Amino acid sequence: MFRRLALPLMVLALAACNAEAPAQDTDQTPPPLDQPAQDVPPATAPVPVPEPKADSGLARFDGYGDMRFGMTEAEMTKAWGGTLNGDASGAAADQCHYRNPVSNPVPSYFAFMIDGGKFVRYDVGNDKEVAPGGGRRGMGADEIRSLYPGRVAESAHKYVEGGKYLTVAADDGSGGKLVFETDAAGKVSEWHVGVEPQVDYIEGCS
User: I need a surface site. Which of 34, 95, 114, 125 has the fewest CB within 10 A?
Assistant: First the structure.
């Protein structure tokens, strides 16, 4: 009886030893976490937006807005597109005089000079307007020098003790000049742009 049972048990044991273990797939490596299935181009830094230029206003070395030095008074008025005070007629039209926008609180706030029937200069006595190159009323003399390096010619103010005239020649070939007037504290009190000889007039039309 023992022998009959022993033989089948031995056969089963041998079969169990010879059974192959299940094959393992060594190539199925899990992908790294958060890895996209497709190639993604490298991130790029945002393109910086350029800052607006300081002199992006209407003031220019060759005129103001659409007005250009050398225009007749009629051409200048048309280019201005608004109403101006100080219209001259007859013989006075050829003499030096100023035209002011009707919105001016005072004549010295902003004015256009006409001489010989031509637009030759504009004067600014307010904080709103920005001169060509970035200068403006209220700036210190050192700020003006830094804005126009190597281009500022200085001379003493005729009426203000300690004041100066800071003159900047155009760098665009227009022949215009920009003149800043400073007070005793070295601050710009007013400025004007024009062509010679009128740009060098100290007392308005003289």
Answer: 34
How far from 152 is each of 48, 135, 137, 180, CA to CA, in Å? 32, 12, 16, 10
Grouped pLDDT means (10 residues each) for the chain, 206 residues? 45 45 52 55 46 60 98 96 89 90 94 97 97 98 98 97 97 95 98 98 92
Rounded CA-CA distance 139/188 in Å is 5
Structure tokens that stand for 180 in this block:
């800043």
Strand ordering across the sheet containing 63-64: 59-60, 63-64, 67-68
Q: What is the pTM of this model?
A: 0.73
Q: What residues contact residue 89 under an 8 Å CB cut-off, 6+ apart? A: none
**Adjacent-strand bridge partners of 64:** 59, 67
Q: Which two tokens stand for residue 135?
A: 């200068």
User: Distance between CA atoms of 109 and 60, rounded to whole angstroms?
Assistant: 17
Q: Which two tokens stand for residue 67?
A: 């007005």
* Alpha-carbon gap, residue 34 to 135, rounded angstroms: 55
Q: What is the CA radius of gyration of the chain?
A: 42
- CA-wise closest residue to 191 among 168, 170, 174: 168
The DSSP element (H or E) to which 194 belongs, if any, is: strand 188-194
Backbone angles phi, psi at 49, to 5 degrees: -90, 125
